[in-house]
Write a structure and sequence with these properties.
By secondary structure, this protein is α/β, with parallel strands linked by helices. The chain is built from 11 helices and 13 strands. The strands form 4 sheets. It has a 7-stranded parallel β-sheet with strand order 3-2-1-4-5-6-11, sandwiched between helices. A two-stranded parallel ribbon has the order 7-10. Strands 8-13 form a two-stranded parallel ribbon. α1 packs across α6 and α3 runs parallel beside α4. The chain is globular, with a radius of gyration of 19 Å. Bound molecules: NADP nicotinamide-adenine-dinucleotide phosphate. The site of NADP nicotinamide-adenine-dinucleotide phosphate has 22 residues, from α1 and β7.
Amino acid sequence: MAERQLQVVTGAFGYTGRAIARRLLEQGQQVRTLTNTSAADPFTGQVEVCPLAFDRPQMLEASLRGAKVLYNTYWVRFNHQRFSHAAAVANTKVLFAAAKAAGVERIIHVSITNPALASPFEYFRGKAELEENLKALGISFAILRPAVFFGNEDILINNISWVLRHFPVFGLFGDGNYGIQPIHVDDFAQLAVAAGAGREDTVVDAIGPESFTFRELVTTLGEILDCRRLLISLPPWLGLLAGRLMGLATGDVVITREEIGGLMAGLLAVDSPPTGTTRLTAWAREHRDTLGKRYASELGRRQVQ
Ligand SMILES: NC(=O)c1ccc[n+]([C@@H]2O[C@H](COP(=O)([O-])OP(=O)(O)OC[C@H]3O[C@@H](n4cnc5c(N)ncnc54)[C@H](OP(=O)(O)O)[C@@H]3O)[C@@H](O)[C@H]2O)c1
C-alpha cells in the first residue's frame, strides 16, 4: 500500500472527483474534499469536507496545507446566469495559487481534449488558459485531457440513451461523422491516481479503447438498448432548437451551441493511444437495463433550477 498522505480532491461527491476519492480511499490515503455541494456524502464520513471558498483564498490555503496532491476537477460545463467559464477560470487560478502558498507538492488537473488559446469555443479557451497557468505555477503537475466520460451516472452517454429510449427518431448535428472517444470514469480515476504518485510534469490525453464517430456511437447504443432509431441529420441550429425544447421539458440545459460546435469540430477526438481499458460497448451491454432509463440533469445536480 502507498504511504498514507493527505490528498485533496475537488468535488469528491460529484462525478469524477468521487471516482478519484474512492480509489484514494481504497489505497488507504487520507482524503479531503473541497466542495460547495449539498449532495449526500457517498463515503459515510471517510472524506473530510472543506468549502471550495474561492472568495476566501486564506481559507482555501488552510484547507490545502499539508496536502501531498491536489486533484482538481473543478469547472463549469456552460455559461449560466449563476456561473460562467470566465469565473471558473478566475476561480481555478485562485485555487492553484492557494495550493502553491500551502506547499502542495503536486497538482493533477482535469482538462479537455484539444484545448487551445485561440479556440472559438470559450470552454476550450478557458481550459487552455488554465493549462498555461498551471505550467507556469512552479508546482509539479499532470494535466489529464479526457474527451468525455462514461460510467454509472454519467450525463452524455446516459442522455443519448434516454433519447433513444423515448423518441422514434434521433437527430444528429450535421452528418454525425465527427469523432468521440469516451473513457470510463474509473479508468480515468486510475490514471489520475497513478499520475498523483508520479513526479514528472506531463500532459496526457485520456481516452478509452474504442473510438466512434458520433453517428456510430448513437447507432451502437441503439443496437445495444434494442432501440434502433432512424437517424436524421439536422443543421446545427435546428439541433440546438431541439435541445432547447428538450431542455424546457426536462428543466435542464441539454446541450449548448458551444458543445455542438466543439463536437462537430472533432475536438472530442485525438490521435493519441488509449489510456483506458474499459470498452464502452461492453459496459453499455452490462448496464443495458438501466442505461438511459432516467434523464440525468446537469442543473438538477447543481440544484439551481
Ligand atoms: N463530464 C464529462 O464528460 C467531461 C468531459 C471532458 C472533460 N471533463 C472535465 O472533467 C472535470 C470533472 O467533470 P465532472 O463531470 O466530473 O464534474 P462535476 O463532478 O459535476 O464537478 C466537478 C467540480 O466542479 C464543480 N462544479 C461543477 N459545475 C459547477 C457549477 N455550475 N458551479 C459551481 N461549481 C461547479 C463541482 O463543485 P461541487 O463539488 O461544489 O459540486 C466540483 O467541485 C471538469 O474539469 C470537466 O471539464 C468532463
